[in-house]
Amino acid sequence: MPSILSPDLGLLFWMFLAFLIVFALVAKYGFPVIIKMVEDRKNYIDESLKKAREANEKLANIKAESEEILRQASERQAQVLKEAMATRDSIVKSAPRGIECRRKSCRTSADNYKVIQNSHPFFRRLRSFWTSEVIRLATFSQFK
What we know:
Number of helices: 2
Helix content: over 70%
Oligomer: single chain
Structural class: mainly alpha
């Protein structure tokens, strides 16, 4: 009775021959497909890593650009604030002169109006009429 643990020479020969046939078939048809799949997977992983590096570089560039834009915006803000403060200071410094000019202008206008008002008889009558009307209305409103 043949035993698996102690095979005879004929069984070893046929097992070896079957192994060589299966190995030849796998080597001819199986290994190239497996190797191609492994290489495709390796290429896919390499491409993914390359794209990830590019994405990281783009992200770093975008971050640098955004920081540059923020820096420019803050510089522009500081410049606008300086200009606004300078304008404010110049307005504050020139305000007393402008007020004084307006006072003089108003005084001159009022003086001119008084001269015209006093010189024309129509204005004198009008002034006396309005004065009497104001007095009449003031007294009338007291009795209400």
